[in-house]
């Protein structure tokens, strides 16, 4: 069974439920997951577990699943007509996850820019210095080839594929900017 098949089966299984029921179930599942994570010791966080793209640490899986939980929880809340805000620590964490996947997203989608430097500024949350290809870590003193400035939530939602367009201001290398925009949906 593919991931798409699994997802379609679960969506179909809950198709008749009212949005409020889905939201309550989503919140309960999130609470259970957080309790399970809270019970882990240091060794538990380092353990390797299978995931869609191969084996990952429980720590990495937790980060990915919590990111997905917030994004899909927001989807469910919107469907139910309920607010679903991100407090500042959650938004900062979501933005960090979204920023860190940019270099890998460029590479996975066939648009790497080896040696390029991207400076991402997300308002009061701070800024990130990102490489133009997977595995690259620019020198902190490096001059950016592309500077991207965005409102944090708009960036997070765009990175997760929840919105389109380019909710940012980009200056610098036009080809890198176009590839940044074309590949920024790696978090969903």
Task: Give a brief description.
The protein has helices at 3-13, 19-38, 42-46, 58-79, 88-100, 102-108, 152-159, 174-183, and strands at residues 48-51, 54-57, 117-121, 127-131, 146-150, 168-172.
Features:
188 residues; alpha+beta; Nonspecific Lipid-transfer Protein, Chain A; four-stranded mixed β-sheet; two-stranded antiparallel sheet; 8 helices; 6 strands; 51% helix; globular
Can you put this structure into words, describing what you see?
The chain contains 8 helices and 6 strands; from the N terminus they run αααββαααβββαβα. It is of the alpha+beta class and 188 residues long. It has 2 domains: 3-84, no CATH class; 89-183, Nonspecific Lipid-transfer Protein, Chain A (2-Layer Sandwich). The chain is globular, with a radius of gyration of 18 Å. A 4-stranded mixed β-sheet has the order 4-3-5-6. It starts with a helix and ends in a 5-residue tail after the last helix.
Q: How are the secondary structure elements laid out?
A:
Elements lengths: L2 H11 L5 H20 L3 H5 L1 E4 L2 E4 H22 L8 H13 L1 H7 L8 E5 L5 E5 L14 E5 L1 H8 L8 E5 L1 H10 L5
Parallel strand pairs: 3-5
Antiparallel strand pairs: 1-2, 3-4, 5-6
Helix pairs in contact: 2-4, 5-7
